[in-house]
Design goal:
This protein is mainly alpha-helical and about 120 residues long. It folds into two domains: about 15-60, no CATH class; about 75-115. The chain has helices at about 35-40, 45-60, 75-90, 90-115, and strands at about 15, 30-35. It has a two-stranded parallel sheet with strand order 1-2. It is rod-shaped and about 85 Å long.
């Protein structure tokens, strides 16, 4: 007996949307259902089962995963070559800006070192 038989009540069909046409394309399948019931049914339409397994695998692989925040702050060692290049080859404005930033970095390093030795 064909799974697309209109009066085939021996075979369970799966409809991807509630009230929709079965996944196998059968126009008037008497027994069509969604998810849980279809998965536990021992007698399934082969075409519907293949599409069900494909849809289930796709939804499992597409689970949203929490990534969180990525800190992209550059390290001082990473930006130091930029400031050195600005001091050597930059315009007077770039040289002044690089000098300012190097002094700021030095003050922060001094503060961090002081806090590490005197944690009050």
């Amino acid at each position: 007996m064909s799974t697309s038989n209109v009066y085939n009540t021996e075979i369970m069909h799966w409809a991807p949307t509630r009230g929709g046409r079965p996944a196998c394309g059968t126009r008037r399948a008497i027994m069509s259902t969604t998810g849980d019931r279809f998965e536990n049914e021992p007698r399934k339409c082969v075409k519907c089962e293949a599409k069900w397994n494909s849809a289930k695998a796709l939804s499992e692989s597409a689970e949203k995963k929490y990534i969180g925040t990525i800190d992209m702050t550059p390290t001082w060692v990473g930006v130091l070559p930029i400031y050195i290049a600005a001091l050597q080859d930059g315009s007077p404005t770039a040289q002044a800006s690089a000098r300012e930033e190097l002094y700021r970095m030095a003050r922060l390093a001094d503060r961090a070192q002081k806090e590490a030795h005197d944690p009050r």
